[in-house]
Amino acid sequence: MSLDDLAPQSWAGADDVVIVGGGLAGLFCALKLGERPITIVTAAPLGDGASSAWAQGGIAAAVGLGDSAEAHAADTVAAGAGIVDVEIARLMTREASDRIADLLAFGVPFDRDLEGKLLLSREAAHSERRIVRVNGDLAGRAIMGALVAAVRRKANIRVLEGFAAESLVTRGRFVTGVSARRIGDPSGRPVQVIGRAVVLATGGIGHLYAVTTNPPEARGAGLAMAARAGALLADLEFVQFHPTAIAVGRDPAPLATEALRGEGSVLVDSAGRRIMEGVHPDLDLAPRDIVARAVYQAAQAGGAFLDARDAVGNRFPTRFPTVFAACQTAGIDPTREPIPVAPAAHYHMGGVLTDANGRSSLDGLWACGETASTGAHGANRLASNSLLEAVVFAARIAEDIQGLTPAAPATARMRGEPADHDGSLPDSAATATLRRTMTDLVGVLRDGPQLTRAIETLDRLRREAIGADFANMATSALLIAISAERRKESRGAHMRSDFAAPREEWERRSTISLKDALDSLGQNAVELAAS
Length: 531
Ligand SMILES: Cc1cc2nc3c(=O)[nH]c(=O)nc-3n(C[C@H](O)[C@H](O)[C@H](O)COP(=O)(O)OP(=O)(O)OC[C@H]3O[C@@H](n4cnc5c(N)ncnc54)[C@H](O)[C@@H]3O)c2cc1C
What we know:
By secondary structure, this protein is α/β, with parallel strands linked by helices. The radius of gyration is 22 Å and the shape is globular. It has a 5-stranded parallel β-sheet with strand order 6-2-1-10-17, with helices on one face. Strands 18-16-11-19 form a 4-stranded mixed β-sheet. A 4-stranded antiparallel β-sheet has the order 12-15-14-13, with helices on one face. It starts with 16 loop residues before the first strand and ends with a helix. It contains 16 helices and 19 strands. α1 packs parallel to α11 (about 385-405), α6 (about 220-230) crosses α14 (about 470-485) and α13 (about 450-465) packs antiparallel against α14. It has helices at about 25-30, 70-80, 85-95, 95-105, 140-155, 220-230, 260, 290-300, 315-320, 320-330, 385-405, 430-440, 450-465, 470-485, 515-520, 525-530, and strands at about 15-20, 40, 60, 120, 130, 155-160, 165-170, 175-180, 190-195, 195-200, 235, 240-245, 265-270, 305, 340-350, 350-355, 365, 370-375, 510. Flavin-adenine dinucleotide binds near residues 41 and 218.
């Protein structure tokens, strides 16, 4: 049965393509879908509530003289600690320059030199200068600004802002839409948005942790929705912790971009000693997981700091305006004093298992951006590869959908729903318990007994959950904890003190389904339906 064999009346008045999420992945996919009727359902108003808008570094692309897609792929594979899908990494790095060209065409003002060539900078674990950026550390804001404007100009794209998707609508094996509810109206009726193709682009899971750099909307809704509909998920145990979130008690924690270390800033402990000396030959530019663990240990032992006084000094306000503003708000002058830092949940390598065209294991469901797991990142993402992955696979999904399903005729209903709230999803005491559990027990350093405790707590929270939003959070958190417990080794971002080394039998990606997870907890299919 193909999508079009479903009874035609089921599509009557239906949308053509439904995209859940208005970050870079969702917007780019919508723009690449051409003139088809598209509905974007997004929890926050466009431009808000998306990690994409907060990206400081930029996008990795081998567009410089002497660089190559192969070299970029090799760095990606090396960072991924043995489990990157090499073919996926190769196609992603090969398609990078075309996607940069698309972004330029959508109006993104990437930094250029006097000859008009793209200015490139270097980040940790990249062998070349290949990060395309905007105005120093403003890449995310500029990229999203251009894409939001481009989407707003398109009459074929309807944007439902302020609606949180809660579950996928299915018919047999097919995903046929999403059920969403207006934020701030928990007792209101959910609305169903039905389409021929559904693309999940709901971003990451950082907000499942008490200390994170992600916006509150990054709470794993896409993962949980896909899991509850029966999709396979992959590599969930691999959560990247950014080593240098600014530790001033803010939620989310502001980020001190890695580019600061690229420019020579150094990590020091409370006694002023270099933290990375003797830890890794690349010192402060070592892979992110290694730096995060060293910073975590220094922070536990009395404090960790990023010292940018010599390397950046007075250029700080112009070179890194976002970081400078965050420091100023916290009463820190980074030109004169070291910045207190701590690791924070930052990026999820795992997600909905997808193939090279972004297809999930369920018919009619695609996923891209941070909510997907393409295999490009393995156990550890290379810096600035996530924006790249978002655009490469969003474009591939658009092409796949174009090839698979003829466009529905455009209708006259292309009007958006403006947000009538401030865009924030509510948090509760149970949410605080969940987030603390994740940071304390499923964090930078893990072990078996801690993970078992986490699973017990998260499963209880999931079973007692009131409301779809929290049930989704608890489901995603539980699946991450179970995946972390199952991987009895240390690899990339997944570090276990009870299995401190990598093990050959684990040199592979992991997959999990909700049914499989609940079976392992002795719960049955009735539970699954209710979860
Ligand atoms: C501070 C920071 C700096 C970063 N810097 C870089 C960088 O320099 N380079 C790089 O490559 N990567 C960087 N990253 C990572 C990168 O920004 C993200 O991985 C990427 O932007 C994810 O894009 P996305 O479209 O998948 O998700 P997002 O941009 O997070 O968008 C997700 C969208 O889904 C919506 N949403 C969520 N849940 C629901 C729901 N239930 N219903 C409806 N809508 C929902 C959100 O409102 C949002 O619109 C950074 C991340 C952070 C947090």
